[in-house]
Write a structure and sequence with these properties.
It is a single chain. This protein is an alpha+beta fold. The strands form nine sheets. It has a six-stranded mixed beta sheet. Strands 14, 15, 16, 17 and 18 form a five-stranded antiparallel beta sheet that branches. A five-stranded mixed beta sheet has the order 34-35-36-37-38. The chain contains 13 helices and 40 strands.
């Protein structure tokens, strides 16, 4: 039994304050949204500081401005402006949507403005001295252009009477706003400015006959604690809200009409670097190089997609809704501050859309059946099978366990500490074998092999008492961890793609005293994955346990492959290929997860005496992480309601919680979690009074819905899905065109 004498506690002051419900990531797709008909990357090969996109054109600029084709990735040409460094960029408005993207304004470091014609690649107008400091941003508002410098001066360029468009040759109207602006965004006719932790809303206006009217509202502060503002975004289909990203991974949501903060949603622990409204979704990038796509119209928010877009922090994200008019799609461009590579993503998420649409219609091409799985997790504390014979209760445990289900198709045993983790002959010498004699190593290996074999024989004998015939599907081991899976004989021919792998997390991932055994296979045309884990011990070691889970979930467990006649998208989920745990349609994670109750022993014992399990569970570290840590990797999983007392730590041979000098606090260390929306249905979750270990075993019984794909029917269903996609694209084009026309009318 491992030593976990650390009795420090994570206090409530150290925990993140509860905000809105964290986004639901249970169905997130991790496949990068790469275009199949467009280039994925454009290597600019020079120092790029600002980017913008409109229709076919991507503009990059700093010491030189270049125009790129999003269709081919080729550089169409460059616009020269010697000795001028560009710091801001925006496309000039057009009267007709067909002319969008034909002219661009460039702001310079010394406060000047340039206008360039994209078709001729020439500077057609230039103004110097309109700003006294570097221009930080240029913004479109209907048929007006607003330029903002780092001193807080905004110049408003209104449309002239002759063309109805703004011109640099005209005189702008001027006003000053707050300095040190982190970000600014135009929302209807208002300028929303983020600075530090506050938002201020301004209303610039331009008139040929009147002076500028400028209304400043009081600063708006996030309703709940949030870090400094870094970026902002609006979603065209959400006319009510403005979204601000923060450096602590939170998004604050403001009402446009009420001018108040209505919510703060914690989506990460990492700095948000850029955001954009793309279609109906909010795209968010982080300093980790990750991009997440959220459906913010749901409560909680739904994580539609997440993927590693760049190795370095993402600096810019650009999208133009009118691109869909000319391209029939919606490219999104991201860029870091270091590699000067533009990466182009499919903003309409075509492959994801088709995949989800097919899943919604899988009844049209799939047949289904329900099987049962019985899963037992137990830290056996190095007990031997023979130890179960010491009492009549213990001797009946395994038979009682397997007979608790009515001949389940799958029986999974996930054990931990099959060997004594404090036994220096067994574990330390296997870890640091280069320092020990060969004889000691051989003795340790022989001891472990004998222990594994003894338990396998005992488990085989236990399942033999069931009415059906069972076969050993697979067994695997990792020092103290041991997984043994049995399956009904008649199901064996339905199994394919059977693989197992191990992940070591002990001693920084070097050794297997902690870690996981991962078994995956395909049954019919459904993918299943079973994870047996043992996480870091210690009362206060929540972060090490979280890191263990993250390392396990993020490990590439096997090479991909479907081993089935069905399409990979029918077998796996989230855009995966079966090489990672969350690629699988149905997942179970069991083990000694070692999460504790974040209270001292005395109040815990009093609540147990009163039977106040629900109150006690409020302080369970694992449940707390699920509620308060948006990056916790078990958040996509569910657990059946706990209706049994803590499973650790007992005096061996008794029903008494630890009476040793350490008097460890009882805890629900032993858990079973599952994931499979609409596919997994829990039946029973219970524990057993077995006294040969300081842990009690826990079992879960589940109905599982598996499918078989009819290939011919699937082809027909896919054709229908493609037609629905084409209809969706046309609807998106019409919606974007209507939005453009409404903005045009509002600005006249």
């Amino acid at each position: 039994m491992e030593d976990d004498s650390d009795d420090n506690f994570v206090t409530s002051a150290e925990e993140t304050e509860r905000l809105s419900e964290y986004p639901d990531s249970s169905r997130a797709n991790r496949r990068p949204p790469i275009f199949r008909s467009m280039p994925h990357e454009i290597h600019c090969k020079y120092d790029v500081r600002v980017i913008s996109i409109s229709g076919e054109y991507i503009i990059t600029s700093s010491t030189v401005t270049k125009v790129w084709s999003v269709k081919t990735g080729d550089c169409i040409g460059h616009i020269g402006h010697p000795d001028l460094r560009i710091t801001a960029i925006a496309f000039k408005p057009s009267l007709q949507v067909e002319d969008e993207g034909s002219a661009i304004w460039l702001g310079t470091r010394d406060g000047g403005l340039l206008e360039a014609d994209i078709r001729t690649l020439k500077i057609v107008n230039k103004r110097t001295g309109v700003h006294n400091s570097m221009i930080k941003g240029i913004y479109r508002c209907g048929f007006e252009m607003w330029s903002l410098d780092e001193d807080g001066r905004i110049q408003i360029w209104g449309p002239d009477e002759r063309t109805g468009l703004p011109h640099l040759s005209d005189a702008p109207k001027s006003q000053r706003i707050q300095v040190a602006t982190a970000c600014a965004i135009v929302v209807n006719s208002y300028l929303w400015v983020g600075r530090a932790k506050q938002v201020t809303v301004y209303q610039p206006s331009y008139s040929q006959s009147e002076l500028v009217q400028f209304t400043v509202t009081r600063p708006l502060t996030a309703a709940k604690p949030a870090g400094d503002i870094t970026c902002a975004a609006v979603i065209a289909t959400d006319p009510e809200h403005v979204y601000f990203g923060h450096d602590d991974g939170k998004v604050s949501v403001y009402s446009r009409t009420k001018l108040t903060c209505v919510d703060v949603v914690s989506i990460s622990l990492y700095k948000i670097t850029a955001m954009a409204g793309v279609g109906n979704f909010l795209w968010v990038s982080f300093r980790t190089g990750m991009v997440y796509v959220y459906d913010v119209g749901q409560r909680p928010w739904i994580v539609m997609k997440d993927w590693k877009a760049h190795e370095n922090p993402i600096q810019s994200m650009a999208v133009d809704r009118t691109s869909i008019f000319k391209l029939g799609t919606l490219p999104v461009v991201t860029m870091t501050a270091t590699d000067n590579i533009l990466t182009i993503w499919d903003g309409m998420l075509k492959q994801d859309w088709l995949e989800l649409n097919m899943q919604e219609h899988e009844e049209e091409y799939c047949s289904f059946r329900t099987i049962q799985a019985l899963i037992c997790t137990w830290n056996v504390g190095a007990a031997k099978p023979a130890d179960l014979q010491q009492t009549s209760t213990d001797s009946k445990f395994l038979r009682k366990l397997v007979e608790s289900a009515d001949d389940p198709e799958i029986v999974v045993f996930g054990f931990q500490e099959l060997v004594e983790l404090d036994n220096k002959t067994v574990t330390a010498k296997s870890m640091f074998k280069h320092k020990k004699k060969h004889k000691d190593k051989a003795n340790a290996q022989q001891h472990m092999s004998h222990q594994y074999k003894a338990w396998q024989d005992r488990l085989t004998e236990a399942v033999s008492h069931l009415d059906s015939r069972y076969a050993l599907l697979l067994s695997d081991k990792l020092i103290g961890l041991y997984t043994c899976i049995f399956i009904k004989e008649r199901e064996k021919h339905e199994i394919s793609n059977l693989r197992s792998s191990t992940v070591k997390t002990g001693l920084g991932g070097l050794h297997g005293n902690k870690g996981a055994i991962i078994v995956r296979f395909t049954l019919d045309d459904s993918s299943l994955c079973f994870v047996n884990c043992h996480l870091a011990a210690g009362q206060s070691h929540v972060i090490p346990r979280n890191n263990d889970i993250a390392n396990i979930m993020e490990s590439k467990i096997t090479t991909g492959g479907i081993g089935s006649t069905a399409n990979m998208a029918d077998i796996y989920v989230g855009g995966g290929d079966g090489s990672m745990i969350l690629d699988h349609e149905i997942c179970f994670v069991n083990g000694d997860m070692n999460y504790r109750i974040n209270l001292h022993r005395v109040p815990v014992m009093k609540m147990l005496e009163k039977g106040e399990l629900d109150k006690l569970l409020e302080s369970d570290q694992l449940l707390t992480q699920l509620k308060k840590n948006p990056s916790f990797r078990l958040r996509p999983f569910s657990e059946s309601s706990i209706r049994f007392p803590p499973t650790y730590k007992y005096d061996i041979g008794t029903d008494t919680y630890d009476s040793s000098e350490k008097k460890r606090t009882p805890a629900w260390c032993d858990r079973i979690y599952y994931r499979g929306p609409g596919k997994v249905f829990p039946i029973e979750y219970r524990t057993y009074d077995v006294r040969v270990s300081d842990h009690r075993p826990v079992s879960g019984l589940y109905d599982i819905k598996v499918k078989t794909v009819d290939r011919e029917l699937r082809k027909e269903a896919m054709q229908m899905s493609i037609r629905r996609w084409e209809d969706f694209v046309q609807e998106s084009i019409q919606s974007a065109r209507l939005h453009f026309q409404e903005n045009e009318q509002r600005s006249r």
